[in-house]
Amino acid sequence: MSSEERIFDLLEDLDAEADAILGAERALEVADQARAEYATVTLNARLMAAAGAELSLGVRGAGALRGQLAAVAASWLLLRTGERVWVVLTSAVLWCDGAPAHAVAEAAWPRTARLGVGSVLRRMADDDAAAQVVLADGTRVEGHWRRIGSDFAELATGHRRGPLLVPFAAISAVAQVASES
User: Fold this and answer.
1) Mean pLDDT value across residues 79-87
2) What pLDDT, on the 0 to 100 scale, is given for residue 149?
3) How confident is the model at residue 5 (pLDDT cuts 50, 70, 90)?
4) What is the 3-state secondary structure (H, E, C) of the chain?
5) Structure pTM?
6) How high is the pLDDT of residue 34?
């Protein structure tokens, strides 16, 4: 092998080593970027991707609920179980099993996703249907929604002198109770 061929071989070897080093560095950069981007993904973005799917949720105070995820909003979701439709506050979700691996960016969410839980409770109050309310500590209360404030609701239970004031932060889940006709 001539000295010229040895120099070209050496240059090819160095070029291959440089490519390998650059490829490894690029792979690390891509992995770091993917990790950093995933750090911005919210639980609601993952749940939004699960809309319409069957899944199981662990809900503080209510235990495990399994059903079809009917809707997702910024602070709550609707879960259709066999017997009820539950409004579950996202802050009360302890775990979720069955969500797809992808997420939906907030910019792609429907307008209804911006509604707060107060909007849902106002709708229930308009229907004047009995509601079962599960609080974060596991307490279950039945009654009728009366007035809905900005961060609390009045629940008429029939067992108290006046309506029970329930802060939204204390609510884990709410379901309308079927009327007995």
Assistant:
1) 93
2) 96
3) confident
4) CCHHHHHHHHHHHHHHHHHHHHHHHHHHHHHHHHHHHHCCCCHHHHHHHCCCCEEEEEECCCEEEEEEEEEECCCEEEEECCCCEEEEEHHHEEEEECCCCCCCCHHHCCHHHHCCHHHHHHHHHHHCCEEEEEECCCCEEEEEEEEECCCEEEEECCCCCCCEEEEHHHEEEEEECCCCC
5) 0.79
6) 58
